[in-house]
Amino acid sequence: MNDRITVEELAELMKKAAGITVAPEELQQQYDTGFDSLGIDSLGLLGIVGELENRYGAPMPTDAERCKTPRQFLDLVNSALPAGA
Amino acid sequence: MSEPHPRRAAVTGIGVVAPNGTSTESFWKSTQEGISVLDRVTREGCEHLPLRVAGEVRDFEPTAAIEERYLVQTDRFTHFAMAAADLALDDARLGQADTGEAPFSVGVVTAAGSGGGEFGQRELQQLWGKGSRFVGPYQSIAWFYAASTGQISIRRGFKGPCSVVAADEAGGLDALAHAARAVRRGTDVIVAGATEAPLAPYSVVCQLGYPELSTGDDPARAYRPFTEGACGFVPAEGGAMFVVEEAASARERGARVRATLVGHAATFTGASRWKESREGLAQAIRGALDEAGLAPEEIDVVFADALGVPEADRAEALAITDALGAHGRRVPVTAPKTGIGRSFCAAPVLDAAAAVLAMEHGLIPPTPNVFDICHDLDLVTVRARAAEPRTALVLGRGLMGSNSALVLRHGAADAS
């Protein structure tokens, strides 16, 4: 497992938890696009956060499910992961 | 009413997802031919349960009908509802462009009795198998009776009045009546109906406590209302959605008025008190006729509730003659649901769809698997009967005590 949550993993979780298919390269280009425009609602993002917490065995920052864009989200959740884990 | 042109509620679209067909055309073909599709339960996890026969929807492919983002957050009963709503809107020729122009004038009304059992079971297994952190957030909305109304309105962008009838089986008719009232009050279009998916193992176990449930293992004999062999009802999944809109404006936009919803009444007589349902059902029929301004003799066909429990069948047969008088013994009565099972709230909505189709085709569909009637009714059996029904009465009763009656008129009868 990577020690950072990548855009690939986010794309995979968007499909699994919210049924939204976006290729990682495309998601990279839409880094600052709102989750709502991508088709992810608040429960979808909550599901992604839950999946990450189960995978990494660590709680995510409480504001994670309030992030508006992929960039905000990845910056926040990665800041919470212990470096070099 | 003193208004010169009272608003009338018309059915301009019908969408069906049923055990005997996942389109209105295939449903009608099978229904009018009197084909029974009741069969042994094959749903995974149900093999060891005492329910042997059901009406399963086997040729529905959710991924072909619904976008994945809606599939992941909804149960099978909502998949049926979204697909049936699409079919009904297509039938009414109401596209995204039409409804998108006036989103506040389109609403949704559904009824549901069993909710999202399959989705709920999966998430509860996560809860007890792995822990609360493994329950997905969509569980909060997917199991809920209101899910189909909400998801249809979100998916299609409808922002008009939305509601859910939380009742028992009779609720399907109440949802159509609620839609008719909303249209009469001023809403342009209501997408209304009911779908159910009560055949997940958890949902089946919930039904095992109903004394009315048939556990017969012969598909040809498990559900035979109005006969000496009546041994309860066979459950089913699926349902139907209607597009209900104001008759005059529907005609103005060139839509086909397939039928009008002209009368409805509902009563309550208590859970499993079938003897008492006689008076409740008769009162509902009288109320529906009264609202429709019709005499008993004007009813051309009755779609019976047909529970398949001797006491309930007797009460229904008596209620029909109590309310319709001597005409009640002469009017053709049918119960096509003996060929597909009872899909709870959706069962009387499928009957309403069959009633519209019967009026359009001049053909009263038969009651599959039912032969020797032990009640004083003219039950249509074996094959469809040619007739010219202009007015249909659809009856529904629920295990929890609701009784409803809905009167529909043929679209052409309304125009004349």
From TrEMBL, chain A:
Keywords: Phosphopantetheine, Phosphoprotein. Signal peptide: none annotated. This is Acyl carrier protein. The keyword Phosphoprotein applies. Pfam families: PP-binding (PF00550). It comes from Streptomyces aurantiogriseus. It comes from the Bacteria. SUPFAM superfamilies: ACP-like (SSF47336). Residues 4-81 form the Carrier domain. PROSITE patterns: CARRIER, PHOSPHOPANTETHEINE.
UniProtKB/TrEMBL annotation, chain B:
GO terms for biological process: fatty acid biosynthetic process. Keywords: Acyltransferase, Transferase. InterPro entries: Beta-ketoacyl_synthase, Ketoacyl_synth_C, Ketoacyl_synth_N, PKS_Beta-ketoAc_synthase_dom, Thiolase-like. The keyword Lyase does not apply. Residues 6-410 form the Ketosynthase family 3 (KS3) domain. It comes from the Bacteria. One of its GO terms (molecular function) is 3-oxoacyl-[acyl-carrier-protein] synthase activity. The keyword Cytoplasm does not apply. Belongs to the thiolase-like superfamily. Beta-ketoacyl-ACP synthases family. This is Polyketide beta-ketoacyl synthase 2. It comes from Streptomyces aurantiogriseus.
